[in-house]
Design brief:
The strands form 4 sheets. This protein has an 8-stranded mixed sheet with strand order 8-25-24-23-9-20-22-21, sandwiched between helices. Strands 10, 11, 14, 15, 16, 17, 18 and 19 form an 8-stranded mixed sheet that branches. The chain has 35 helices and 25 strands. The protein is an alpha/beta fold. 49% of the residues are buried. The radius of gyration is 35 Å and the shape is elongated. Strand 12 and strand 13 form a beta hairpin. Helix 20 runs parallel beside helix 27 and helix 31 packs antiparallel against helix 32.
């Protein structure tokens, strides 16, 4: 049933309830058993064990486990104690990676927990004709509930009676001012949530007035429950980096298996013993898999997280750091994100003026009178906590009170000067509020409200001019209120509305708006320079949203602004065709926001969604990266988002994008650095088996290079400073390979180069010592030390000498530590023995170090001739 389109009688009949009596306790109990409790259902959480097992689905991890099992089998067959060290080390690496993955996973369940925390604790309800205070979880459809200012609505309900009712629904609809409710309103079927004036919604608060309503939906059937359901149904999407690393793992795994198959075929033809073939297979598997890559990427992302914290961006999910750098579209909520989420009185027009004027801290006498009278006719209050203004009551009223205060008229002072002696509260039918104040021996009547509700009551003032000013201000999305007054001799014994609200003199008009954040305009401009498309998505009206969007530079010539109703009439195909032309979406629902996000994703864009309300949560989770506001943001939004802006500053996104782009560049450097070694190791083992029938490197030596020697320089590369020109680049395409812009060529070059010098060293070592161990010692020395030297090459796509080659202090220290560890294995006899190395003639150490330096001039030459290109 579409509740907001029905009449009161239709609703009461549908739920079989008499409004004066409510449900009986027995009937309520039956409905509770049938429909369930008024609470949100949580998605079943994965256990720690399930998360741990889930870490072993990766192809690289599976290959390593198989390699470890084969190695264990060989160790058992040989019966040598030291043979167990190698498989134990491989399994230890696998388990540590899995533990890190479990600890890193936190995408989350806190969103639903936060939604549940919004559920109210108690509700006032009529049962068997008696008013009761019950646990809100015991409410059922058909219950008659009573609401007043300060209450949180316990369930979705249809209004039976209302008096000056206002409901704060910004968390659900995005509107910056409370919604005026009216039980007598007739609402069309396609009306968005914010326009359903005869309904109140679970989790929203009553800011003004009283009401009696009938519950029409509880638990997961409420609008809040539908959002919870969307959060449950919305799968956590993989980030581009996760997809690329997963794809890379598959390719490496296939390459390792293919190489093993070829080696096995050659071994069978050459009648090589099976044990030797299995040992070679283990070596190939270990050489193909970059064991340290997942852990090192995690560490590099963690470094980025720490950098972002210093810039007021808190990351909840590590891979999201890189995704933010890839963002090509930012879908931003208006209220509280691009605007201040605080109504501010910006303009006023006093009767007799030619045009409205801006409100400052010192205004003309007529404007001061207008602000003074307007503030007197307000129930809202303000207080100060240091420099912070605390608003108490209706935002439109506190905006007027604050403007008067800033013009030297604190409400406490003017209320003592002209004390209120009578009032007619605001009424949605009259669209105005009236107060009477003692003014010496006479009384002052002040009426404040909508111009069309006040102008017929005025007998003096330039009403035609006022209407023209009203229209001009409204076209600029200002919320306009009129103020009128008259003096009377004394307050009548029985004050009547007709008597007080007649013969008025128009004092003037005040215009207010939720203004844009001062820094948001510059942030939008910077986003555009960086090739990022900003899009506004809001629950507010299209006129208001368009005005703000134009001020910020989001809505430009040729761009469209559409409403949620227009969006609902579009098919997904029509939306896909128009999505690049639409810059503003107004009066949208949570479902609409997800449609918009997914339309951009289908267009191949990496979408970031920012917001702070409950209504933003599903889209925050569906987007490639969700950014929640830390101060004004709800717990629900923070729980669904990947990142929280701790200063609620839209401009912080620009800095976060810059850091994200820098971190992705650093990860590419790390991947290139580590894979160069892996490719060379596969080539070395494969070619040596074909040519010599033996492996130049044992799997334990390969593990030492991959995990120990290379790890510290790789982490240090992740600490490279962000290039100052990075925000002049366009976002990288969603499907761009991690090896784009010359990285693939660079990795292939270094792999072939490392393999060549390592094989040469292997041959020289064997000829010098006459043993395989001598050749392996030479190969180990060259490959490990070449990696240390090559770390400098990976710092930039430009020449190493175009800037200070030693400016990265972390890299300098890492290379010293790696060099020390290489020397430890090569020269300390007990460690030599464990790793299967031997002492070489002194000359061959010099030859080895010389060969290891070759990558430096070769990569400089590649950069100079353009084989390695810088991205523009």
């Amino acid at each position: 049933m579409i509740f907001h389109t029905k009449s009161k009688d239709e609703i009461l009949n549908a739920f079989s309830v008499v409004p004066q009596e409510g449900l009986s306790q027995d009937e309520a109990r039956l409905r509770l058993e049938r429909d369930g409790r008024n609470e949100l259902a949580a998605k079943k959480k994965k256990t720690p064990l399930q998360r741990f097992i889930g870490q072993f689905k990766d192809v690289m991890i599976i290959i390593l486990i198989i390699a470890a099992l084969i190695s264990f089998g060989i160790a058992i067959y040989e019966g040598k104690a030291h043979s167990f060290f190698e498989p134990a080390l491989i399994l230890l690496i696998v388990v540590l990676n899995a533990i890190m993955g479990v600890l890193q996973e936190s995408k989350a369940e806190r969103a639903l927990d936060a939604l549940m925390s919004l559920s109210v604790q108690h509700a006032r309800v009529l049962r068997d004709g008696k008013e009761l205070l019950i646990d809100a979880k015991e409410l059922v459809a058909g219950d008659i509930i009573l609401l007043e200012a300060g209450d949180v609505v316990p369930a979705d309900a249809y209004l039976l009676r209302s008096s000056s009712l206002k409901s704060e629904e910004s968390a659900l609809t995005g509107e910056s001012v409370p919604s005026e409710k009216d039980a007598l309103s007739r609402v069309p079927e396609n009306a968005p949530l914010g326009d359903r004036l005869n309904m109140v919604f679970s989790g929203c608060s009553i800011t003004y007035g009283t009401a009696v309503a009938v519950v029409v939906a509880t638990g997961m059937n409420t609008e809040m429950g539908k959002i919870a359901g969307m959060l449950n149904n919305e799968d956590d999407s993989q980030t581009p980096l996760q997809r690329k690393l997963a794809s890379l793992g598959k390719y490496l795994g296939i390459a390792a298996l293919a190489a093993c198959l070829i080696i096995f075929i050659i071994g069978i033809i050459g009648k090589t013993p099976p044990i030797e073939m299995f040992m070679v297979a283990v070596s190939l598997a270990v050489s193909a898999i970059p064991e340290g890559l997942p852990a090192i990427v995690t560490i590099v992302l963690s470094i980025g997280v720490q950098r972002m914290v210093k810039r007021n961006a808190l990351i909840r999910r590590l891979p999201a750091v890189e995704t933010l750098g890839s963002a090509s579209v930012i879908c931003s909520d208006k209220t509280g994100t691009l605007t201040q989420n605080r109504m501010t009185l910006t303009e006023a027009w006093a009767d007799g003026m030619e045009e409205p004027v801006k409100i400052g801290i010192k205004s003309e006498a007529d404007i001061e009178t207008l602000l003074k009278y307007g503030a007197l006719c307000c129930d809202g209050l303000i207080s100060f906590d240091g420099d912070k203004v605390v608003h108490i009551g209706d935002p439109t009223e506190t905006a007027i009170v604050l403007a008067a205060h800033r013009n030297g008229m604190p409400k406490e002072t003017i209320s003592r000067e002209l004390p209120r002696i009578f009032e007619l509260p605001f009424d949605s039918d009259r669209k105005r509020m009236t107060t009477v104040h003692r003014m010496g021996n006479r009384c002052l009547v002040i009426v404040k409200g909508a111009f069309d509700g006040i102008s017929p009551l005025c007998t003096s003032g330039e009403l035609d001019k006022a209407e023209a000013v009203l229209n001009e201000m409204s076209n600029r999305a200002l919320r306009v209120l009129a103020v009128a007054c008259k003096e009377i001799e004394a307050l009548p014994a029985e004050p009547a509305m007709e008597e007080l609200e007649s013969g008025l003199k128009l004092v003037g008009l005040v215009g207010m708006i939720d203004p844009p954040r001062e820094e948001a305009r510059l942030a939008v401009l910077t986003c555009k320079e960086a090739g990022i498309r900003p899009v506004m998505i809001t629950g507010d009206h299209v006129v208001t949203a368009s005005a703000i969007a134009r001020q910020l530079g989001i809505l430009n010539e040729g761009d469209e602004a559409i409403s949620g109703t227009e969006l609902a009439a579009m098919s997904d195909e029509e939306l896909d065709a128009r999505v690049r032309n639409i810059s503003v979406y107004a009066r949208v629902s949570p479902e609409d926001k997800i449609r918009i996000v997914k339309a951009w994703q289908r267009a191949g864009e990496v979408v970031s969604m920012t917001g702070d309300g409950v209504n933003d949560a599903p889209a925050l989770k569906a987007a490639d990266i969700g950014c929640a506001m830390g101060i004004t943001g709800t717990d629900v939004a923070k729980g669904a988002a990947d990142m929280t802006l701790t200063d609620d500053n839209f401009a912080t996104i620009v800095e976060a994008v810059k850091e994200g782009r820098g971190i992705y560049d650093n990860i590419k450097k790390v991947v290139g650095f580590l894979l160069g070694t892996n490719i060379s190791e596969v080539l070395v083992v494969f070619i040596a088996m074909l040519c010599f029938g033996k492996s130049p490197l044992l799997s334990m030596q390969l593990l030492w290079i991959n995990l120990v020697t290379d790890s510290l320089p790789a982490i240090a590369l992740g600490r490279e400073a962000v290039d100052s020109r990075i925000m002049k680049q366009k976002p990288k395409p969603k499907n761009e390979s991690i090896f784009a812009h010359g990285l693939g060529i660079k990795v292939a070059l270094q792999g072939i180069m490392f393999a060549a010098i390592t094989l040469l060293g292997f041959v020289l070592g064997m000829s010098a010592t006459g043993t395989d161990e001598g050749g392996r010692t030479m190969a180990f020395l060259i490959l490990s030390f070449a990696q240390v030297v090559h770390a400098f090459n990976m710092r930039s796509d430009r020449s190493l000498f175009a800037s200070n080659p030693f400016s990265n202090r972390s890299l300098n220290l890492a290379l010293l530590a790696s060099t020390a560890m290489i020397l430890l294995v090569v020269f300390v006899p007990p460690v030599q023995l464990v790793f299967g190395l031997v002492k070489l003639p002194s000359l061959y150490y010099l030859i080895g170090f010389g060969l290891a330096l070759i990558p430096l001039p070769v990569m400089e030459l590649a950069k100079a001739v353009g084989l390695v290109r810088h991205r523009h």
